[in-house]
Each structure stands twice: as C-alpha cells, then as structure tokens.
Amino acid sequence: MASALLCLGVLVVLGGCGGAAESSQPTPNAAAKDKRHRLEAVKADCMKQKGFKYVAYVPPERPESDEELKRASGDYQAMRKYSAKYGFGVFAEFAYPEERKRQAGEGKEAEKDPNFAIQGKLSEAQAGAYRKASDACVKVAAKQVLGKDVKSDTDFYDAINKALERARTATLDSDPKLVELAAGMAACLRGKGYPIGTTTPSAMSGRGFKVFLDQSDSLSRKQRDDVPDVAPPVKDGEARMVYPPQLSVAEARPYLDKEIKAALDDLECGKDFYPVYSPKEKAVAQQVNDEFGM
C-alpha cells in the first residue's frame, strides 16, 4: 500500500511543502529546544509508568542551506531556480526518483528515532495499546510543559495548525501592504487564465502548491481501492491526509512540466509579493513553533 502524506496541515507548519511559496523550516530558539526536550522527557516517564519503553528523542537540527535561506527571504533568483526545476514541489518527487531516494536516505541518517524500532517489534494488540498510551502521555506532557489541553498526538498537531491559522490571519492576512500585493498578484494570475478564489495573502502564497497537490491526490485515489475517490472535507486546523500516486518518470514528466509553467507564472505575478510575505510568514511560523516547542 502506498504511504499517505500529511500535508496542508502538519508538514506545512513544521517544514513547508515546497514550491514558489515554499516555507522554510524555522530554527527553534533555546526556549523552544528546552520545551521540546522537556516534552519528550515527560512523555518517556509517563510511558514507563504505563509499562512501555519510550526513548526521549529530539531529532538533530538540519541547518538551512544558502539557497533555502534565500528562498525563505523571497529572493527572486533563488525561487526561480527552484521553480524552474521543481515547480511547486509536488510532481518533482516522481520525476526525480534518484533525488527522492537520496533525500530519504539523508533523512533516515539524520533522524534515527529509536521509537520506530521499538514499535516495530510490537504485536498488533500491543501496538494498539502503545498508541493509546502514547496519546495519553502526550496529553500529560502538553499540559505539564506547555499548559495546553490536547487529547492525543493528532490533536497536538491540530492545535499547532489552528494556532498557525490564527497567527496568519491576525498578522499576515490583515497586513494592508500584503493585502494590496496579494490582490495585485491575483489580478496578474487571472490575466494569465488561472482561476483564483480567495485572495488573502496566505491563500495566494499556498494556492499553486494546493492546486497540484489536489491533482496528485486525485490521481492516487483513482489508482487505489482502499480510499474514497473524492477526499473528504477537512475541518479548519486539521491536517489533511493525501496519498502519492504511483507514477513512472515518463508518466510524471508531463504533470511536472505543467506545474513548472504554473510555478513560474506564479512567481512572475508574485515577484513583488513574495519578498514581503515570505520573511513575515517565516517569523509567524517561528513564533508558533516556539510556542509549542517544535
């Protein structure tokens, strides 16, 4: 079974999902790092009390490259270089399989979470009990360390997404300059024949990526018989489950070519918008991640 990806949700908060509107992973400050370590320590102690082994683990930070820092600042040339090869970062995953394998290998090397191996040795019944205990312990840790009420792991990340939405609305979507720039970007894209719905700054930033992620998910759902053909509606602040399709390089290339053209048009129309929006969006994400110890 093909794996599912959580996007337009958790990954958007924590790392971004690529493209002209790519959000760079904010670097946690000292206070956030301390919260993260305390969250893990409390969870590990709680799991031990419930009879389960859990290793307090915080993955090592991956420093941002110069190119990533430039894109996060809204640098036109850096964003154009990325968009010309990867589009919004959706179908490139299938068009460049060797890069995907290399990145997956780097990820495994950088994030050797021992808890995956622990869970992998459990029976189905034990795994269910483990997940139930984990949810209970996340609830304990979030309350003790952050003073926040959550019900489970999923609820914890939903809370982050909701906090990010509130922060974007309050800080970005109400910024007069960004509103003006977003409206100009929308008018430009309409002139190029793109359908535009909501024109808030945050919506314009994520518009292109969402269009092609929806297309990728729709392709996957048509290939599978274990998920609905149409994605169910998602409540505000909840992470949406999306599924990657099975595509060969040859099959993926036409989709990527269309995505690249759209991403370059998006960037041209947003060349005044992104340098103002991107740094502010990164600061908002930083603030939310710091609040939750991420």
Task: Outline the structure in words.
By secondary structure, this protein is mainly alpha-helical. It has one domain. The protein is 64% helix and 2% strand. The chain contains 13 helices and two strands, in the order βαααααααααααβαα. The chain has helices at 10-14, 30-49, 66-72, 76-86, 92-95, 97-110, 114-120, 124-146, 153-172, 176-191, 201-223, 249-269, 274-291, and strands at 5-7, 240-242. It has a two-stranded antiparallel ribbon with strand order 1-2. The longest helix has 23 residues, at 124-146. The two termini are 30 Å apart. Residues 1-24 have low confidence and may be disordered.
Summarize the structure.
The protein is an all-alpha fold and 294 residues long. The chain has 13 helices and two strands; from the N terminus they run βαααααααααααβαα. A two-stranded antiparallel sheet has the order 1-2.
